[in-house]
Amino acid sequence: MLATIPLVFVLAGLVLYVVLAGADFGAGLWLALSGPGERGARIREHAHRSMAPVWEANHVWLIFVLTVTWTAYPAFFGSVASTLGAALLLAGLGIILRGASYALRAGADGRRGRRAIDTAFAIASLVTPFSLGAAAGAIASERVPVGNAAGAEFTSWLNPTSVAIGVLAVVFAAYLAAVYLAADAGRVGDAELEAAFRRRALVSGFLAGAVAAATLVVVHSDARGLYDGLVQGGALATVIVSGLAGLITLALVRAGRLQLARVSAALAVAAVIAGWALARYPTLLPGLSVDRAAASHDTLVTLIVAVVAGGVLLFPSLGLLFGLLLRGRFDEGAAHTGAGAAGIAAGARPRALVAAGVGAGRGAVALLIAGVGLLNVAGAPWAHGIGVTALLGAVVLGFVAIVPAMASEAL
Amino acid sequence: MLSLAAALAPVHQRYLLEARQMQALSFGVHIPLVAFGIAFPAMVLFVEWLYHRTGDPVYRTLAQRWSKVAIALFAVGVITGTILSFEMGLLWPNFTATFGGVFGLGFAIEGFSFFMEAIFLGIYVYGWQRLSPRAHMLSGIPVVITGFTGSLMVISVNAWMNHPTGFALRAGRVIDVDPLHALFGNPYLWSELIHMYVAGYMVTGFLVAGAYAFGRLRGRWGRYERAALAIPLTIACLAAPVQVLIGDWVARDVAVDQPVKLAAIEGLYRTTDGASEHLLGWYTDHQVRYGVAIPHLLSLLAFHSWDARVRGLATVPAAQRPPVNVVRIAFQLMVSIGTMLALLGLVYLVVRIRRRRLPGSAWFYRAAVLAGPLATVALIAGWVTTEVGRQPWVVYRVMPTSAAVTGAGGIPVGYGALVVTYLALAVAVAWILRRLARAPMPGKGPAIATRAGS
Lengths: 411, 454
Ligand code: HDD
Ligand code: HEM
Ligand code: HEM
Fold this sequence. Notes:
heterodimer, A: mainly alpha, B: mainly alpha, 10 strands, binds CIS-heme D hydroxychlorin gamma-spirolactone
C-alpha cells in the first residue's frame, strides 16, 4: 500500500507532463507546419506567445517524475535508464533544443532568425515526444529487464509497440496543442486564428484516434501480455473511458467549446496512462514488483510527506500562474492601470537612505569582526554557525551602507 | 573497505573516464548558469525596489532589461539541469539504483523548488506593467528564496556524497535509511552551501559588472551604465573578501572529514606533524617539486596548531588516492583567484568609502572586466577540487565510481553529441546576450509613459 502511493504521484505527474508539456511540444510542430507568408507568421507568433510564460513550469513535471521515481523505486529507475539510455539521450537533446529555442526567441526579432529557431523547435517537438513514448512502450512491453543495461540497447525501444506509442505521443502532442491554441486565440478574440487552430485540432484529433486504434492492433500482435492486461478488469474500463473522452473532445472542438475540450482531452490521456498502469500492476519490470522495487519505509514516508507539503505550495501557485494567463493578464494590451509605478514611491526619500547607510556601515564592521572571531578563530561548530551568519550579515549591511546612498547621490 | 552490494550488478565500463568527463562537462556548463539563478533575481528585485523608492526611470529600465537576461539564462539553466537529471540515470544508474532511497529526497524537494521558481519567474518577467507594482515586487520574492532552496537541496546531496551518513550497511546492503538525517543532519552541508551561495553572488556580480566595465572602457558611461555597474560590483566586492574567510572554514571541514582529499589538495604523501604548506609546484614521486614551502603553515591553517598532525596520502592504498595534480592545481587556482578578487574588492570598497565615488582608473575597470571570467574559473575549479578530490569514490569510502557507472555502450557517442550540443548552446547564449544588450533603450519619458516591450 505505502509502496504504491509514490507510483500514483509518478503517474499523476506523467499525466500532467503529457497534457501540459505535450501541448508545448505540439505547438512546436504547428510552428513548422504554419506555412509561409503573413498568416504563417501570425500562427507562429501566437503559438509562441501562448506558451512562453508557462513552458518552464510545464517542463518541471518531468523533473518531478524523474526525481520521485528514483527516490521511491531506485532499482527500477536504474534499470530503465541504463537500458533505454539511447532513447533518453535523444529525448534530452530534444529538450535542450526546445528550451534553447524559447530562450532565443526572446531575443530574436528578425524574421529569418525566428524561422531558424522555429525549425529547431519543431525538430525537438518530434524527437522528444517520440523518444519518451518509445521508452514508455519499451517498459510496457516488458523489454526492460532488471539490471545495469541488461536489455537490448536499440531494439528495446525500436520495436513495433514502442514505435507505435512514440508516434501516438507525437500526434497527441499536436492535437493537444491545437485545442489549446484555438482556445487561447478565442480568448484574445482572434476569430481567424481560432478557426485555423480548430481545423488543425479536428484533423489531428481524428489522426490521434486512428493512431490509437492502430496502436492497439500493434500491441495485440507484438506485446500480447500488455494487450491481455488492457482488455480485462479496470484497465478495460479505462481504455473505454479514453476512447469516449476522445470522441467527446472532437465533438466539443466542433461545437467550439474549447475550454471543455481541453479537459476531456486531458481525461483521455489520463485514462490511457491509468490503463497502462492497471494492466501491469503490481509489476514494474519483469520480476520486479512495486513492493520489491520500493525504497525503505522511512524514505517512502518522508517522500510522501514532502510531496504532499510541496503540493500545498505548488497547486495554488500553479493556479495563480494559469489564472493570470487564462484571464489574459500577460497579453499584449493588458497594462496595469491604477496608481502606476510611482504609486509606492511616495516621493523619494534620499536623505533617510543616507542616514540609514551610516548606521549600517558601523554595523557591518562590527559583524565582520565578530564573524572572523567566531568562524576563523574559534573551533566549535556552534561558533561557526554564528560566525558565518555574522559575516553574511556584514555583507548585507555593507551593501545597505553603500548602495542606497550612492543611488540617492544620483551616481 | 566495506564491500558494498550494489542494487544492480556492477559491470565493466570501458569508457568510465569518458563518462566522468561527460559528467564534468555537464556540470561545468550548468554551474555558472546556476550562479545567476542564485544571485540575479535578488539583484533585479533590488533595482526594482530602488525604482519604486526613488521614482527614477533609470532603475526601471535596468530591472526590466536584467529580467530579460535572467529569464533567458534561467531557460538555459533549466535545460542543462535537466541533462544532469538524465545523467543520474544515463551515466550512473547503479549509484541511483543503490542510493536513490537515501539521497533522492533532496532532488524531489528540489523539484518543488524549481516549480516555484519557474512559476514565479514567469509571473515576474511577463507581468511587468501588467501587475500592480506591489504584486509584481511580491512575485519576485519566491524566485529569490527558491534560488537558495534549490542550491540547498543539490548541495545536501553533494555533501552527503562527500560525507555519507543516514544509513547503514549490513552484508553490503543499504539498510536503516534515514533520508532526513542523511541530507540535512550532515555537518558538511553548511560550509559547502554557504561557500557556493556566496560564490554565486561573486560570479554574477563580477560578470554583470564586467559587462558595463567593458562598456566604460569603450566610452559608454551614462547614468544608466554607472548604476548597472555599481550595484553588482558592490555586491561582488563585499562578497569577495568574505569568501576567503568562508573558504578557510570549508577547508577546515575538509581537513577533519576528508583527510585524503586534504592530502591531495596539499600534495602531502606522508603523515606529518607540523606540515608545511606548498605554493605552486608539481606533485611527482610523492612530493611537491618546484614549489615554495612555508613551514608549519598547513598544520596551522587546517587545525590551528603549530604541530598538528596532518594525514598523508600514504595512509590509503594507491588505488584509493585521487589524481593529486588535478586536485592541487584546481585548488590553487581557486585560492589564488579568490585572493586577487578579495584584493580587488578591498580596493573598490576603500575608494568608495574614502572618496565617496567609483574608482577612476582605467586599470580598475580592466581588472573588473577580468574579474567575472576569473570568478567563474574559481567556481569550476572549486567543484573540480571537491569532485575530483573525492575520487575514486562516488560515495566517499562506500561506493567507487567504477561501480556506479552504466553498462551501456555508446558513451563516446553520447559524449560527442553533448559536446556539439553545448557548443551550439554556447553560441546561442552569446548571440542572445548580444541581442539583449543591443536592444534599444526605452525613451526617457516620465516614469509611467514608457511601456515594456515583450
Ligand atoms: C567564486 C568562487 C570561489 C572562490 C573565490 C573560492 N571558492 Fe572555494 N569553492 C568554490 C568556489 C570558490 C565552489 C565552486 O563553490 C566550491 C566547490 C564545492 C563547494 O562547496 O564550493 C569550492 C570548494 C572549496 C573547497 C573544497 C570543499 C570540498 O571538497 O567539499 C575548499 C577547501 C575551498 N573551496 C576553499 C577555498 C578557499 C580557502 C578560498 C580562498 C580564497 C576559496 N575556496 C575561494
Ligand atoms: C549533487 C550534486 C553534485 C555536484 C554539485 C557535482 C559537481 C561536480 C562537478 C562540478 C564536476 C566537474 C569537475 C570537473 O569539471 O572536472 C563533477 C565531476 C564529477 N562528478 Fe559530481 N557533482 C554532483 C553529483 C554527482 C553525482 C550524482 C555523480 C554520480 C555518480 C557525480 C560524479 C562525478 C564524477 C564521476 C565526476 C568526474 C570526476 C573526474 O573527472 O574525475 N557527481 N561533479
Ligand atoms: C547532480 C546535480 C544536479 C542536478 C541533477 C541538477 C538538476 C537541475 C534541474 C533539473 C534544473 C532545472 C529545473 C527546472 O526545470 O526549473 C536545475 C536548475 C537549477 N540548478 Fe541544478 N542540478 C544539479 C547541480 C546543481 C548545482 C551544483 C547547483 C548549485 C549549487 C544547482 C542549482 C540549481 C539552480 C539554482 C537551478 C535553477 C535554474 C537556474 O537558476 O538556472 N544545481 N538543476
